């Protein structure tokens, strides 16, 4: 804490990091955040984790961009080892806004004129507000003229959303994580909440102390294990087999909820047939879990009066990620564990606004509120809302493109293929976050024109032709939507430094240079337009958010609190019923073998966020976790002859990195875990870009690798 006095201001907002969406108050003096306190928000009740408490000084870091930058003539694109992001003027020169925007938009409009609308693509960001997401996808759809717009949902929960849309007709959670306090049994699988959703984890611990029995199903051990009633640590990649065996037990022992299945679901007979042979005994060896443990977990979940399932990217980031989620949905439907307090399905959303950005349409196959671009009626309604809707890809006039666009990894492939030639990237960092970075960085380098809008010269911005200096979260007003479907209002606490501008303003200036007649004066005007196109925002107007801070969607009536638990009566499908979607086990895309005998898995750390562009510039957070580490079991370290603190090299078919080894008792033998936020040991150089066929999400949680001892640095 700093010293407070009468000059101090308090500004209420929301944490910009994870999907929990903690409400907080900035204490501001002399245009700087002195300290941050948790507020009594619906998702945090005053609590904050280390990021929400200490993670805000990045906005005043010496490398913060305060002027537009333009690449100097003749400087090649790429990540030059000698390049210093704090002194970018060796590679870029400063420009005023008019010149920078003219160059930024001019390069893209020229490519569109020469090669057609589908030669362009845009990545928006889940770190931005709902209004910015809305404007960005609107610009791509009506200005660029295609649906080539995506964001990091493609790298986190796209497969979960694909399964949820298919099975229950909605991609969001069916109940908030607070409902764990009302549950008798909770399954946590493929998630590590104490690290990735820390404040949600505090409520899980509270629930455990109150008597909720937690079953953790994960290859790795974790801090929540101390609160668990049962822990099933399975062989990486064997999740579908394990879940099917649980379904087999529930069906074989008639533990399912017959009345619920009859009234609320379709396709149960198909599921029965699909899992008939997948007994716990038949899969125990492959799963690495004793059959009686699988039986016990299945019985506990099925016999509970109220039970919930929470999952994370350990489920979704596989080539069988959609199948994983289908199995979890089948478990809930078979046992009737949805639609009541203390029951539900909850994919723990990663970034602060990945739910809202997805809702707002930053997805290539759907318009806002998940309405298919292929539906002529849907397109017509948005064409009417947006007036002159731009030029379609077939040049037929003012119509939205009916063809779904390309996803994140597909866009990188299309750049290599020469079909995508220009990009506008807002707040995303694919030069760190994409799989197989050599391929992704090669794509960025070969773009004919790249515009990056960000706070810093990120790894991605190092490939840009024009860099537009954006606004950090405490410098803007806007709404975000957390993992619980709670729409919350963030308020501006700090002035923008130098010539940096609000993101919505920059997108609008780009749109105007595409000939679009936009004239928004404030994010609240954008939000008002969103309400006209998104039924999910009914009864949640900006003024109400200013008064109340947060409202859950769907909100069924003026002044109503919003529905914390949904689908009590019916599902939003054509029949009103949910659908079982059986899944059969498939091997990982790149199974371990003699040459590459160890499983590489990647993810986040408590102190760092996504690719580290913000948290590695936040002093307390970077002091706590300053260097790249590889987490390994004691057995694996002994086998390698490496002591904790010494260095290991990890090699896959795509490359090698060397970094410090850390002993982690939660790691199984035969597996290594590396966070993806460290550019000096960028683990995504090694990851496998193979995609789940439905969610198009890469297999970040499983790549075959080889470990070896490395010499000291
Ligand atoms: Fe921020 Fe998430 Fe931590 Fe809450 S739990 S303070 S939203 S990072």
UniProtKB/TrEMBL annotation:
This protein is called what? Formate dehydrogenase subunit alpha
- Membrane-spanning regions, if any? none
Residue intervals of the 4Fe-4S Mo/W bis-MGD-type domain: 8-63
Q: Which family does it belong to?
A: In the C-terminal section; belongs to the prokaryotic molybdopterin-containing oxidoreductase family.
Name the UniProt key words of this record, in alphabetical order: 4Fe-4S, Iron, Iron-sulfur, Metal-binding, Oxidoreductase, Repeat
């Amino acid at each position: 804490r700093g010293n407070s006095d009468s000059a101090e201001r308090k500004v209420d907002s929301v944490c910009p990091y994870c999907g929990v969406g903690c409400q907080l108050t900035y204490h501001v003096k002399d245009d700087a955040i002195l300290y941050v306190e948790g507020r009594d928000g619906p998702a945090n009740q005053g609590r904050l984790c280390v990021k929400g408490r200490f993670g805000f000084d990045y906005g005043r870091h010496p490398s913060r961009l305060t002027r537009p930058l333009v690449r100097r003539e003749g400087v090649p694109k790429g990540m030059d080892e000698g390049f210093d992001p704090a002194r970018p003027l060796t590679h870029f020169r400063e420009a005023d806004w008019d010149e920078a925007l003219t160059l930024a938009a001019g390069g893209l409009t020229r490519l569109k004129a020469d090669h057609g609308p589908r030669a362009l693509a845009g990545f928006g960001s889940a770190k931005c507000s709902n209004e910015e997401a809305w404007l960005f996808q609107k610009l791509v759809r009506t200005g660029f003229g295609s649906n080539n717009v995506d964001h990091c949902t493609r790298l986190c929960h796209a497969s979960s959303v694909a399964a949820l849309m298919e099975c229950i007709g909605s991609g969001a959670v069916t109940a908030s994580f607070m409902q764990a306090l009302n549950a008798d049994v909770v399954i946590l699988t493929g998630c590590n909440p104490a690290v990735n959703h820390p404040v949600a984890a505090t409520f899980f611990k509270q629930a455990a102390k109150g008597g909720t029995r937690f079953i953790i199903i994960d290859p790795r051990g974790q801090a929540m294990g101390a609160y668990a009633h049962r822990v099933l640590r399975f062989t990486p990649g064997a999740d579908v087999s394990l879940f099917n065996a649980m379904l087999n037990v529930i069906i074989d022992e008639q533990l399912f909820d017959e009345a619920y299945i009859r009234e609320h679901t379709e396709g149960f007979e198909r599921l029965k047939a699909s899992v008939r042979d997948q007994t716990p005994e038949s899969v125990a060896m492959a799963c690495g879990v004793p059959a009686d443990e699988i039986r016990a977990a299945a019985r506990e979940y099925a016999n509970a009066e109220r039970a919930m399932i929470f999952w994370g990217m350990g489920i979704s980031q596989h080539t069988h990620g959609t199948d994983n989620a289908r199995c979890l949905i089948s478990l809930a439907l078979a046992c009737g564990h949805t639609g009541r307090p203390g029951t539900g399905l909850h994919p723990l959303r990663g970034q602060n606004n990945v739910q809202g950005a997805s809702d707002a349409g930053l997805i290539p196959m759907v318009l806002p509120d998940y309405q298919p671009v292929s539906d002529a009626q849907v397109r017509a309604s948005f064409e009417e809302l947006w007036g002159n809707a731009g030029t379609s890809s077939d040049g037929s006039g003012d119509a939205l493109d009916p063809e779904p666009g390309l996803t994140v990894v597909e866009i990188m492939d299309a750049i290599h293929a020469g079909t995508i030639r220009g990009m506008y990237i807002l707040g995303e960092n694919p030069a760190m976050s994409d799989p197989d970075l050599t391929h992704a960085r090669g794509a960025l380098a070969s773009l004919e024109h790249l515009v990056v809008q960000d706070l810093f010269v990120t790894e991605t911005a190092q490939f840009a032709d024009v860099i537009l200096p954006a606004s950090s979260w405490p410098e803007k007003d806007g709404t975000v939507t957390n993992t619980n479907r709670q729409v919350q209002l963030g308020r501006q606490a700090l002035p923008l430094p130098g010539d940096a501008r609000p993101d919505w303003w920059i997108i609008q200036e780009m749109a105007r240079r595409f000939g679009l007649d936009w004239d928004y004066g404030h994010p609240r005007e954008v939000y008002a337009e969103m309400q006209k196109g998104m039924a999910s925002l009914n009864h949640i107007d900006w003024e109400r958010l200013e008064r109340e801070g947060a409202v859950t969607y769907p909100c069924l009536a003026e002044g109503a609190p919003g529905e914390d638990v949904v689908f009590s009566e019916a599902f939003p499908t054509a029949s009103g019923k949910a659908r079982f979607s059986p899944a059969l086990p498939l091997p990982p895309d790149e199974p371990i073998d003699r040459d590459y005998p160890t499983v590489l898995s990647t993810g986040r750390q408590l102190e760092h966020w996504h690719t580290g562009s913000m948290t590695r510039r936040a002093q307390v957070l970077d002091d706590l976790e300053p260097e790249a580490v590889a987490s390994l079991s004691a057995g694996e370290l002994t086998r390698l002859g490496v002591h904790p603190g010494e260095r290991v090299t990890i090699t896959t078919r795509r490359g090698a990195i060397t970094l410090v080894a850390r002993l982690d008792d939660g790691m199984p033998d035969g597996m290594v875990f590396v966070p993806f936020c460290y550019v000096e040991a960028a683990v995504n150089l090694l990851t496998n870009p193979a995609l789940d066929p439905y969610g198009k999400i890469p297999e970040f949680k499983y790549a075959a690798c080889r470990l070896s001892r490395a010499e000291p640095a």
